[in-house]
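Appendix B, record 7
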Amino acid sequence: MADADLDVVIRQLARQLHTGLMTRAKERRDRFNSLAAKAKGKETGERFKMMAKATMEQANAAAKRLQMSADNVADSYARSMRLAASTPVTVKAEKKAKEKPEKKAAKKAKKKT
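Structure tokens (predicted):
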């Protein structure tokens, strides 16, 4: 994975997060459904069922946002890497680099005298 493109790694991590999120949401939904089955009153049972349904709706919405964000980041990274690879590198003139040491040497000579 050391030589893998980061956009692929981003997508893999998002897939893992999506799987974990949905697993936890299903566990919570099942817990609410079991509480609804054990509830003594009809209203309480209905409330737990609604909570189970709302849990899955919220988890699905969060998973979609997570996936969309990961796709956007991965696409942006891939686009920037393509752009960076296609941009020619400009070489700066060495003139400025040569002038600076001469000025420093002149300042040192003045300090010594």
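Remarks on this record: Residues 64 and 91 are 45 Å apart (CA to CA). Residues 6-112 form one domain.
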